[in-house]
Amino acid sequence: EAEVAQSPRYKITEKSQAVAFWCDPISGHATLYWYRQILGQGPELLVQFQDESVVDDSQLPKDRFSAERLKGVDSTLKIQPAELGDSAMYLCASSPGLAGVWETQYFGPGTRLLVL
Amino acid sequence: AQTVTQSQPEMSVQEAETVTLSCTYDTSESNYYLFWYKQPPSRQMILVIRQEAYKQQNATENRFSVNFQKAAKSFSLKISDSQLGDTAMYFCAFMKLKAYSGGGADGLTFGKGTHLIIQP
What we know:
The complex is a heterodimer.
Chain A: E1 5-7, E2 10-13, E3 19-24, E4 31-37, E5 44-50, E6 53-56, E7 65-68, E8 75-79, E9 88-95, E10 106-107, E11 111-115
Parallel strand pairs in A: 2-11
Antiparallel strand pairs in A: 1-3, 3-8, 4-5, 4-9, 5-6, 7-8, 9-10, 9-11
Chain B: E1 3-5, E2 10-14, E3 19-21, E4 24-26, E5 32-39, E6 46-52, E7 60-61, E8 64-69, E9 74-79, E10 88-96, E11 109-110, E12 114-119
Parallel strand pairs in B: 2-12
Antiparallel strand pairs in B: 1-4, 3-9, 5-6, 5-10, 7-8, 8-9, 10-11, 10-12
């Protein structure tokens, strides 16, 4: 069964350092989402891509976060510089993204970030 | 903006019992989906059940069923014959559909979750 892949699974970094997360969605899925899940909370959307275009990044802290999906397949989320409050699980999800198709999102295992 | 509220931070039941998790939401949209996702300890989020807002019939998936009350903006999850493997965080989520053809859907808006513990 196809799955969303994410790496690394765990990342420990010091504040002010740069960190990057990678996501490979299910093959053929046009829509890709990045969420941030703080411990004990539900995930919150950071950015949504349709193919290579950003559809929604209204909740992305653009002074330090950036996201790209250059060829409309895999995606990278970067934080620079990292702050203590960025410690969280970063989840990637994908969906077929086609009108008339069930819009179920399939989640990856996440990257757990700890900023010291 | 949409909001999703789960008022039960934690619930605990005995194996084989039936349990209902509550969820309410607030939206001015008319075209949307509702979901329940399960997040087992240290494992990824998986879909439990989904409901289209225009469908009056409540969705059912094996032991899982929902009670969707659109006017009341309520979307509860019932788990029958609970099993130890049902122990997990359960998240209620809302998804708005874009108005134009081919627009796809927005990201999910999640509640804070309910930690369900199934006791042996």
